[in-house]
Amino acid sequence: MERSAGLESVILEALVCCCHEGGRSTVRGAELAEISNAVLARRGESLRISPETVGRRLKSLGFRTEPIGSAGNGLWLLGPVRATAHKLAREYEVQQDAMNGCTYCSGSNG
């Protein structure tokens, strides 16, 4: 229960959402913070997290952020990152609708 309620689960929910956006190849920490804050607001939470907090939590989850152009640090949404995001989302019991056609949602890839 604690895992699914923590900031990691919120960030993973935001990350998987980005993975499902067609044509998206990167996501910046600032974007993940913005999406995560929307998730928190939808849950009735007043807490707001910063891109730096997102970066630290991503690192604790095993992701390695890197510069994305001049727009700040983030993740390249390559296959291994997408697979890890989906795997961790399942482990953290993140509530999500499986994306039709997403091999990572079905668990058949990774």
If you had to describe this structure to a student in words, what would you say it looks like?
By secondary structure, the chain is mainly α. The chain has one domain (2-91): Winged helix-like DNA-binding domain superfamily/Winged helix DNA-binding domain (Arc Repressor Mutant, subunit A), CATH 1.10.10.10. Helix content is 49%, strand content 8%. It is built from five helices and three strands. It has helices spanning 2-5, 7-19, 29-42, 51-60, 79-91; strands at residues 26-28, 66-67, 73-76. It has a three-stranded antiparallel β-sheet. A hairpin with a 5-residue loop joins strand 2 and strand 3. Helix 2 (7-19) packs across helix 3 (29-42), helix 2 crosses helix 5 and helix 3 packs across helix 4 (51-60). The mean pLDDT is 89.
State the gist of this model:
It is built from five helices and three strands, in the order ααβααββα. The chain has 110 residues and is mainly α.
CATH architecture: Orthogonal Bundle
Give the CA-based shape: globular
Q: What is the average per-residue confidence, as pLDDT, rounded to a whole number?
A: 89
- Span from first to last CA? 24 Å
Q: What is the CATH H-level superfamily?
A: Winged helix-like DNA-binding domain superfamily/Winged helix DNA-binding domain
**Percentage of β-strand residues:** 5-15%
The structural class is: mainly alpha
Q: Summarize the main sheet.
A: 3 strands, antiparallel
Strand order of the largest sheet: 1-3-2
pLDDT < 50 stretches: none
Element-level helix/strand string: HHEHHEEH
How many helices in DSSP terms? Answer: 5
In total, how many beta strands?
Answer: 3
Number of domains: 1
CATH topology category name:
Arc Repressor Mutant, subunit A
